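Priority: medium. Attachment 1 of 2:
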């Protein structure tokens, strides 16, 4: 491991201002994206919204990178996956009430992505089996899974980029691009629609931005995003639904 890699791994072990900043940017762009569910005429907010999912994936990859390879069965990992699954279930009700997409909420995809990333990080029989099951589930659930089969592999691709910086960064960018190609956005992009081109460009660039931010050392303090962040997802969906009733 080079000094640069060692310094980055060491910074991930403690509280990281860059990681907290990534989480805040992910939540902010998510809220911006979801405002169009209240005001459909603001559909162009879809463009900055393409940053949110990849940034959440960067945060997951950074958290996975904190753990030592082979140490899968820890209290921290169990709590991490349990919270992800519990809040995926909690969030499904407010998500279904405000969204008409028919997909599961994004925490389902992120939970599968977490397990797949564990497979790459720990490389044990158990972590490998869990990753294969998660990948199979993503394949079977490709249609109702937000960001689909490709989206479930983004955290693992980002983790690979964290461990081996360089050209491998592009793998996460390509997966983020592919995870946004299931709608008519591709057809519109091929017709040189500027908004669709910007949306796909943001999706491609988002993990690269996240990886760059992760490698920075900031001297300013960032309010840490702790476990209350899990409540933010269903909470903001419920707040937007209430706002939609008011307007």
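Attachment 2 of 2:
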């Amino acid at each position: 491991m080079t000094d640069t890699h060692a310094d980055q791994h060491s910074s991930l072990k403690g509280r990281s201002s860059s990681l907290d900043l990534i989480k805040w940017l992910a939540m902010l762009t998510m809220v911006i994206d979801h405002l169009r569910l209240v005001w459909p005429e603001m559909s162009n907010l879809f463009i900055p919204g393409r940053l949110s999912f990849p940034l959440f994936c960067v945060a997951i990859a950074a958290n996975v990178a904190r753990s030592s390879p082979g140490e899968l069965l820890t209290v921290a990992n169990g709590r991490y996956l349990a919270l992800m699954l519990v809040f995926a279930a909690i969030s499904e009700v407010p998500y279904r009430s405000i969204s008409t997409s028919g997909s599961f909420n994004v925490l389902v995809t992120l939970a599968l992505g977490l397990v797949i990333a564990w497979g790459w990080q720990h490389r044990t029989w158990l972590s490998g089996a869990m990753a294969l099951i998660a990948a199979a589930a993503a394949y079977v659930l490709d249609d109702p899974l937000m960001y689909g089969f490709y989206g479930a592999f983004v955290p693992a691709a980002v983790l690979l980029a964290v461990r081996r910086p360089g050209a491998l960064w592009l793998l996460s960018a390509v997966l983020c691009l592919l995870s946004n190609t299931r709608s008519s956005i591709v057809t519109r992009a091929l017709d040189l629609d500027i908004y669709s081109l910007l949306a796909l460009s943001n999706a491609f660039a988002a993990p690269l931005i996240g990886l760059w931010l992760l490698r920075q050392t900031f001297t300013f303090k960032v309010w840490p995003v702790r476990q209350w962040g899990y409540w933010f997802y269903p909470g903001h969906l419920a707040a937007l639904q209430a706002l939609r009733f008011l307007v």
